């Protein structure tokens, strides 16, 4: 009987300890539940805020530019002298054509070079050298576009003139023979009479200085190479080591190993990097504004100055002096077209990435 009273406090103490432990566990679960709910609400709120911001930009551009879409050609010519006598859709089409042309030239130059640099860093260079080169590539991506523009017009343009002269002397006679002797290619009754047909001598008709769309595309390519290279490098480094060793163990050379394992595994990453570089090229302003001699022609005279311009450079060139009303509405209107173009490019990039990742 003496032990009974002593046993009861131990049991109560033990049961009390269990109750305290369960209370603490229940409280921590409630705290975690509140934290999860708070984070979930914050994430949903951030997503909704992005959608609302995008919708607000879309509505603003559409409302501000709507009068320009309805204006007559005569009103556009009188109210917005920077259109050079074109109506709104002709002006917008010429600027849109120059934007796409410069961006495609940049992609054609930048993507192969970026893939080669990324493969060198990830699979050929020594670890120490690859680390230093990777830092340099990342730093190049942080250089402002105005610096690229200054460097392009003061340094790259004099260096590129002899190359353009050589291209004209090498390809000009070939294109001229193509127009003169190939059926349906002549300037009178063939495709060469159309400005939009690229295979004609005007394609390589170089007129110095090199302030043309090809020069602008080269400057854009140099600007987007760091972005594409950095992303491709990280994608190539994610290739499973076992796959690479298995290919080398079967007797493949290093290039055959890269062709069989690294490049197929990195297709979606290469597509994503290319589309990100394309988005940077589409919206670039200052570098092209400093390099290009602007024009509003729709042709493929990519080595002649005064032929092409881009939407962003047209807005930057004319908006500070545009009067309120129709002139500013025209510029906002072409800005809306650039917004739509960027949206379409991003949507297409997501589709390409999804398709290549599934395969």
From TrEMBL:
Q: Where in the cell is it found?
A: Cell membrane
The UniProt entry, under InterPro entries, shows:
MetI-like (IPR000515), MetI-like_sf (IPR035906), Phosphate_PstC (IPR011864), Phosphate_Transport_Permease (IPR051124)
Main location, first listed in the record: membrane
**Transmembrane residues, as ranges?**
42-63, 88-121, 133-153, 213-232, 285-306, 326-349
Which positions carry the signal peptide feature in this UniProt record?
A: none
Residue numbers spanned by region Disordered:
1-29
Keywords, A to Z? Cell membrane, Membrane, Phosphate transport, Transmembrane, Transmembrane helix, Transport
**Domain ABC transmembrane type-1: from-to ranges:** 96-349
- Indicate how the chain sits in the lipid bilayer: Multi-pass membrane protein
Biological process GO terms, please?
A: phosphate ion transport
Q: Name one GO cellular component term.
A: plasma membrane
**PROSITE patterns linked:** ABC_TM1
Q: Which CDD domains match?
A: TM_PBP2
Q: Is Membrane a UniProt keyword of this protein?
A: yes
List, as start-end ranges, the regions of compositional bias called Basic and acidic residues.
10-21
GO molecular function list: phosphate transmembrane transporter activity
The family assignment reads:
Belongs to the binding-protein-dependent transport system permease family. CysTW subfamily.
Question: Which function does this protein serve?
Answer: Part of the binding-protein-dependent transport system for phosphate; probably responsible for the translocation of the substrate across the membrane.
Question: Per its record, how is this protein called by name?
Answer: Phosphate transport system permease protein
Q: What is the lineage of its organism?
A: Bacteria, Bacillati, Actinomycetota, Actinomycetes, Actinomycetales
């Amino acid at each position: 009987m003496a032990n009974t009273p002593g046993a009861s406090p131990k049991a109560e103490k033990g049961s009390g300890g269990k109750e305290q432990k369960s209370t603490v566990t229940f409280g921590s679960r409630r705290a975690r539940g509140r934290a999860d709910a708070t984070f979930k609400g914050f994430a949903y709120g951030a997503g909704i805020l992005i959608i609302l911001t995008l919708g607000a930009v879309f509505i603003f551009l559409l409302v501000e530019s709507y009068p320009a879409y309805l204006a007559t050609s005569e009103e556009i010519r009188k109210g917005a002298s920077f259109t050079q006598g074109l109506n709104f859709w002709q002006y917008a089409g010429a600027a849109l054509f120059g934007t796409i042309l410069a961006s495609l030239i940049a992609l054609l130059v930048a993507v192969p070079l970026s893939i080669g640099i990324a493969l060198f860093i990830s699979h050929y260079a020594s670890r120490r050298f690859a680390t230093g080169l990777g830092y340099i590539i990342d730093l190049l991506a942080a250089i402002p576009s105005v610096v690229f523009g200054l460097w392009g017009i003061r340094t790259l343009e004099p260096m590129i003139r002899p190359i353009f002269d050589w291209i004209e002397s090498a390809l000009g006679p070939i294109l001229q023979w193509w127009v003169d002797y190939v059926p349906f290619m002549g300037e009178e009754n063939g495709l060469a009479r159309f400005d939009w047909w690229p295979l004609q001598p005007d394609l390589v008709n170089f007129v110095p200085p090199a302030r043309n769309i090809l020069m602008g595309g080269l400057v854009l390519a140099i600007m987007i190479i760091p972005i594409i290279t950095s992303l491709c490098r990280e994608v190539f480094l994610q290739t499973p080591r076992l796959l690479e060793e298995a290919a080398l163990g079967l007797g493949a050379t290093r290039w055959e190993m890269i062709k069989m394992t690294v490049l197929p595994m990195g297709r979606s990453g290469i597509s994503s990097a290319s589309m990100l570089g394309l988005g940077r090229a589409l919206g670039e302003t200052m570098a092209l504004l400093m390099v290009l001699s602007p024009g509003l022609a729709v042709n493929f005279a990519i080595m002649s100055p005064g032929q092409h311009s881009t939407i962003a450079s047209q807005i930057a060139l004319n908006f500070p002096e545009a009067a309120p009303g129709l002139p500013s509405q025209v510029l906002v209107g072409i800005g809306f077209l650039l917004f739509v173009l960027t949206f379409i490019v991003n949507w297409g990039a997501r589709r390409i990435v999804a398709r290549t990742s599934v395969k």
